[in-house]
Amino acid sequence: MVRYRRNLVPGGTYFFTATLADRRSKALTDHITSLRDAFRATRRSHPFAIDAIVILPDHLHVVLTLPNGDADFPTRWQLIKRRFTAAVVKTGTPVDRFPNGEIALWQRRFWEHTIRGDHDFERHVDYIHFNPVRHRLVARVREWPYSSFHRYVRNGLLPADWAGDAEQQTGDFGE
């Protein structure tokens, strides 16, 4: 069995991708309120800052920062996934099970990258914000409702027309 090694940095900033087991599912956007509630409840019990986030139908990307002295992001992901899964099941939405009987809403693991400086941070935030265009869900970043891009615009960090139209793209946007 493969032993996963996580880079546990107290107070670290990380880029994560968490994906549903069924890549055809739209559960994350169909149950966006439950997902937001799962994040809020987890932040209350295990604080962290959300620096950037995008929720797509079957996966999400987020850059988050842990409090000083705290490196326990695995527990946070376990709680977010568990809370969201319980909320979805409670709605009566059919959810598959793994052969061992465990609910198979999420892929078992998540992908993590430790942010290593300002350039790395900016590259990952750009990737997050551009991701709905990359997946051809919208033609412009501003059209996707489930993104911290709108907070960046409100706070004056990005212009509303950032990245332009999909047909005019020439940048790599963190890829």
In terms of topology, how is this protein built?
Layout: E1 13-19, H1 27-30, H2 32-45, E2 49-55, E3 59-65, H3 73-90, E4 111-114, H4 118-134, H5 149-154
Antiparallel strand pairs: 1-3, 1-4, 2-3
Helix pairs in contact: 2-3
The CATH architecture can be named as: 2-Layer Sandwich
Which H/E pattern describes the elements? EHHEEHEHH
Number of domains: 1
Strand order of the largest sheet: 2-3-1-4
- The beta-strand count equals 4
* Most strands sheet: 4 strands, antiparallel
Helix content: 25-40%
Secondary structural class: alpha+beta
Return the average pLDDT rounded to an integer. Answer: 93
Q: Which regions are unreliable across 5 or more consecutive residues at pLDDT < 50?
A: none
Descriptive overview:
With 175 residues, the chain is of the alpha+beta class. The protein has a single domain, classed as Transposase IS200-like (Alpha-Beta Plaits, 2-Layer Sandwich). The chain contains five helices and four strands; from the N terminus they run βααββαβαα. The protein has helices at residues 27-30, 32-45, 73-90, 118-134, 149-154; strands at residues 13-19, 49-55, 59-65, 111-114. The protein has a four-stranded antiparallel beta sheet with strand order 2-3-1-4, with helices on one face. The longest helix has 18 residues, at 73-90. The protein starts with 12 loop residues before the first strand and ends in a 21-residue tail after the last helix.
Provide a compact summary of the structure.
With 175 residues, the chain is an alpha+beta fold.
